[in-house]
Amino acid sequence: MSEARHRYVSSDRRVREDRRFVVGKGKFVADIDLPNTKHIALVTCPHAAARIKSIDKRAALNMPGVHYVVDGRELAEATLPLMTGLDTPNVPRRPLAVDVARYSGEWVAAVVANTRAQAEDAAEAIDVSYEPLPFVLDAEQAIAPGAVLVHQAHGSNVLLDKTFVWGDVDKDFKDSPRKLSLRVKWARSSTVPIETFGVVTTWDPWREILDVYASIQMPRYADQIGAALKIPSSSVRVHYDVDVGGSYGVKRGIKNTVLAGYLARRLGVPIRLIEDRLENMRGGDAHGPERLFDVEVAFDDNGVVRSMKMRALENLGAYAGRSPFQLGKPIGSIVGPYKIRSVQYRAIAVVTNKTTQDAVRGFGQGPTNLALERVIDEVANVLNLDPLEVRRRNLIRHEEFPYMIPSGTTYDSGDYHTVIDKVLADTNYAELKKERDRLRAEGKLAGIGIAACLEPSGGNATFEALLNPAITTSTFMDSCRIVVDGMGAITATMHTTSSGQGHETLVGTVIGEVLQIDPDTIRVARPDSLNSLPSGTPVGSRMAIMLGGAAFHAAQKLKAKLTAIAAHDLGIPPERAVYKDGNVFDRNAPQNKRTWADLVQIAHRNIHRMPDGCEPGLAVSHIYDVPTGGTLPTPDGRVQMYPCFAFEFHLILLSIDPDLGVPEIVRYRLGHDCGTQINPKIVRGMTMGGIAHGIGAALHEEFAYNDEGQLISQTFMDYLLPSSHEVPAIKIIDHETPSPHTVLGQKGSGESGYLGAPAAIANAVNDALKPLGVSINTLPLKVSKLGDLIAEARAKKGGK
Amino acid sequence: MHTLTRKEKPKESHMRIELTVNGAEHTLDIEPRTTLLDCLRDHLGLTGAHAGCEHGVCGACTVLVDGVAVRSCLMFSPQAEGAAITTIEGVTPGPGELSPVQDAFCETHGMQCGYCTPAMVLVAHALLADNPEPTREQIVEAISGNICRCTGYAQIVEAIALAAERIRGANRPPELRK
C-alpha cells in the first residue's frame, strides 16, 4: 500500500503485545496479588426504587473472615459525590446509595472479608429494610407531566434539553417538495467486555499515596479519585501497566475505585473489588445509550436531502457521569457523509430507574448513524429509487473537501464515491440484487442493506462545552517521552492503560519510522500516573492520531538533537548533516560520520563535544495538541469538533427464515477508509470486532427490563453476545485517503464497523420485510420480534 | 503457594485433594466449593485462566481436562481429581517460547485485549490434537463456546487454520512440505 512512503508504517508487522497474551502472561487486575488483600462483595437493592429504612449489619459482621461493612451514609460523609459532566448538583452520584436506591441492582452496602467467598456469604446476611417507591423506566413517560421523579430534589427527570439550529431549516423545509418522518429506537446495550471491571487499591499512610491497579479506560481517573476521596490527585498513583481485558469505552469504574479507595484508607489493608458478572451487568453502571429518535427530512424528487430535524431522547438510567455527552459527540458529524445543508437537533437526556450508563464505543455516534441511515433508506423507498443511488446523490464528493457541515465542523478528507466503487468492483451490485431475488423466489425473505457512515476521531472534547457552557475545555492532549540510555537503547513511554488497541506497537512503529530503526528494538513502557505526562486516554478513536502524533514529534525532536550534536562534532553546518538509520553523515563527504554509538557517547559522557546550550543526555518529550482544536463553540452552537473523519461503507445481503424469523447474514462487504493504517493487522481486527459488536447490537443484545423494573438480561444466558456462529465471513476492502491534519495521514479506527453495522443490518431487514408491507425500526431485531412481525403480516395478507 | 505436605490435617471446613496440573502433582487443602478456576488461580498461581462470566457461557476460564476443553468455572476442584489438567502455562514450551498455535495467533493477530486468548489457544490445541486438518466450519464450531468481544473471530479462525497448516507441514518430510 505505501511501501514507497514508509519503512515500517503500514507494513504487515506483528503486534508486540500479543506475545504475553498467548501464553497467559497478561497482567490483568485480577492477577494483582498484594499481601494481606481483603475482598469486597456488594449488597444490592432488589427494587427498582426504594427508601432504605435500615441496614442491619450485625449478623454479617459475626461471620468468619468478615472485617467490615460500609453503607452509603458512612461513605457519603467521608467522600464527595463523583464528578459529572452536566451541572446537576441535585442529582449526585455516589458509589453506594444514600437513603434512596434508584434502580434494581444499585449498590447499597459493601462487605469486606478475607476472601471473596466469605464476603459474598456475609453480603447475603445483611438485612436491609426497604420501602419500595414508585418508579419510571421509560424515557417518554419520564418527561411526561406528573411523572414519578427519580431525584425529587432536581424537580424533574430532565437533565438536558437543548435545541440547536444550524442553517435555515424552516426555509429548507418550506421549499422542499417532499418530507418524511421516522421514529427509530436504539436499544439499551453496551460493550460488555469479557473481563468485568476490577480494582485493587492500597493506601500508604506514611507516604500518603493511594496505589490503584484497575482495568480502567477513563480520562482524568486519578483526578476524579482524588477529588472524591478529598486527597490531592498527586496522592493517587494509578498503575498504567495493568492490561485491561476489553473496554470499548465502558471501563469507567470510578464508583468502584472510590469505594475501594475509601476502604483501603479506612482499614489500612489492600482492598480488591472484582465485579462478578451479575454485579457488572446490574450495578456496574456500564450500560450504553438507549435512544429514541424522531427524524424528519426534507428532500426533492431526486432524493436529494436538503434539511433534517432530529430529536434524540436519551434514557440515561438513574444517575449521570459523562453519559449525557453522548448526545453531543454526534453533532460533529450530524449530517453523516451527506450534503444536508441545514439541521435542527434537539438533545434530551432524562433519568429513569434503570442502571446508569457510561461511555460506549462511538460515544453516541452508532445510534445517530442508525437513525440517519434508516431515514436515507426511507427517502429511497418513498421515491422508489435505489438506496445506493440516493446515497450517491447526497454524498460529499472528493473534490469538495475540506467540507464544512452546518454544525461548524470541517471534515478533513474523504473519497466516498471511490470507496463505494471499489466495493462494487468486488461485489457486483446487480448480481447481489439477483441473489436477493433468487432467495426470495426460494421462499425466503431477503434484503440488501447499505450503510454509509463516518467515524469521527481524535476529538478535542468540545462537545462538553456545547452541552455545558460552564466547561471551557478546548484541548485533549496526549504525550510521549523518549529516552536513549547510556548504552544507546531506546525507551519510549506512554501514559495510560490499553485495552487491546496495541498502543505499544503503535508507539514503537511510529518512533521506528522516524528514527529509521527497527521498531522491535524500541522498548515501550508505561510509567504510573505520578511519573506520567498528560494523556487523554484511549477514548474517541484518538490514539493513532494523538499518541501517534506525540510519538512522531518526540522522535523528530530526538532526531533533530542527534543531528545537531553530530554536525557540531563534525564541524559542519547543521544543514549539511544528514540523519540516516541512526547515524549522521556529512552530505558533502559521506565518509565523515558519527554513528549512533558515537552520538550516545557524546550526549551521555562528553559534554565538551556538545553544541552550546544543548542539554546533556538524550531525553525528549512531546505533548501533542488535537489538530484543528483550540476553539470553543459559537453562541449558536457551531464548533470544530473532531479533526479526522474515516468512512465506512457496508453492503450486506441478509435472508430471514419466514417461518422462524431467524436472520442470516449471507454476504458482508465493508469498504473502509481510515487514511494511513499504521498497523494493518490492528485496523483489520478492530474493524472485524466492531462489525461483530454491531451485529450484537442490531440483532441480539439488550438490557431488557420487565414491568417491575427488574433487569431480565443480566447473565450471558440472556444478554446474548455474538459467538463465532453469529459472525459471518466478512470481506473488508480498504481505501486510503490520508488526513491532511495528522503526522502520517492516519485517522482513527477504534469504532470502525460498529458505527455502521447496525444501520446496514436494519436496512437489510427492512428491505427483506418490504414485500410483506411491514417495517421495523426498533433494535434489537430479535428472532422473536421478527417472527411475530412476519407472522402477523402474513396473516393480514391472508397467507399461512 | 498453598501446597501442603501430606502429614498435615486439613481444616474442618476444608478437604484434601490431589490434582495433576501440567504434569505436576499437587496436594491441596481447600474448601470443597472452590471451583477449579479459583483453585488454579488462587492456590496454584496459574493465572492464565480467566473469569469472565462464572456461569459457563463465555469460556474465558477454559482449561483442558484429559485433553478436552472444559469450563473451569463450572467444575469444583475436587471433581478434577484423577484427571490430567492442562492450562495455558502447560502448553507454552518454555520461557520466551511459543507453541505453533501461540505463534500463529501472533502471526494473524488473533486477539486484541488478550483476555479470552489463553482459552482460545487451549481450544485450538484440543481441536488440532483431534483433527489436524480442520475446515473453517470445524474451527468456527470449535471456538463457538468461547466469546471474544474484540476480534469478531476472523483473525482467530485464521490463526487456527495457519497453525494447522504449519503443524501438518512440520510433520512432513521437507520435500513434501508446501
Task: Characterize the structure shown.
The complex is a heterodimer of chains A (800) and B (178). Chain A has 20 helices and 28 strands. Chain A is of the alpha+beta class. Chain A folds into three domains: 18-23 and 477-624, Aldehyde oxidase/xanthine dehydrogenase, molybdopterin binding domain (Aldehyde Oxidoreductase, domain 4), CATH 3.30.365; 32-133 and 194-246 and 252-283, Aldehyde Oxidoreductase, domain 3; 364-457 and 642-797, Aldehyde oxidase/xanthine dehydrogenase, molybdopterin binding domain (Aldehyde Oxidoreductase, domain 4), CATH 3.30.365.10. In chain A, the strands form seven sheets. In chain A, strands 3-5-1-12-9-10-11 form a seven-stranded mixed β-sheet. In chain A, strands 7-15-14-13-8 form a five-stranded mixed β-sheet, sandwiched between helices. In chain A, strand 26 and strand 27 (663-673) form a beta hairpin. In chain B, strands 2-1-5-3-4 form a five-stranded mixed β-sheet, sandwiched between helices. Chain B is 33% helix and 14% strand. The longest helix of chain B is centred in the C-terminal third of the chain and has 17 residues, at 154-170. In chain B, strand 1 and strand 2 form a beta hairpin. Chain B folds into two domains: 15-90, Beta-grasp domain (Ubiquitin-like (UB roll)), CATH 3.10.20; 100-170, DNA polymerase, domain 1 (Orthogonal Bundle). Chain B has helices at 36-43, 88-91, 100-108, 117-130, 136-142, 154-170; strands spanning 15-21, 24-30, 62-65, 68-71, 84-86. The chains are: A alpha+beta (800), B alpha+beta (178). Chains A and B meet through helix 1 and helix 18 of A and helix 3, helix 4, helix 5 and helix 6 of B.
